[in-house]
Design goal:
The chain is of the alpha/beta class. It has three domains: 33 residues; 55 residues, Urease, subunit C, domain 1; 98 residues, no CATH class. It has seven helices and eight strands, in the order H-E-E-E-E-E-E-H-H-E-H-E-H-H-H. Strands 1, 2, 3, 4 and 5 form a five-stranded mixed β-sheet that branches. The longest helix is centred in the N-terminal third of the chain and has 31 residues. The chain is elongated and about 65 Å long. The N and C termini lie far apart (82 Å).
Amino acid sequence: MTSRPAFRLRPLACSLLALAVFCAESAKALQCNEARYDLLITGGRVLDGTGNPWFPADIGIRGDRIAAIGNLKGATATKVIDARGKYVTPGFIALHEHIDRGILQGKGHVANYLLQGFTTAVINADGLEGGVWPLAKQRDSLKKLGHAINLVPMVSHGTVRRLVMGTTPEQVIRPATPEELVRMQGWCALV
């Protein structure tokens, strides 16, 4: 009969252990929820960019970093955005843009892109308007001016074709020879 109380104590001990773990996790969540953020986005439908379906969550931001994602009920912030019924995303990528000239003219805020949720733009996509060469010069100019969107400069095909084949209409529209293609590849390798 002495084994019977030990048997009863084992489930009780497991229950107490589970309760202790639950309380510890609850205390962590409570500390997290009582946190102070610079920006708190509440009740949004989060699309995390992984291809998974959206999930309901709050987002706490400190400085320029996401500090917490989840149920942040009770958290406070300098600014709170109610995102109920709206999607919250990490930002969209514009894959073919001609905004580099505007930025180089001092229009680095590109508000029309930011307001639509774009955080990154690929520039120099085709080079049909003259193109940029070398890219290092453009990169240095863009860094010096500053801009509010992430920029991904490309080596544009139009620029490389002009460097190898010339600029007259006859030169530009004809197919490249195998030798010219090799020279174009060489130009791209210089980046």
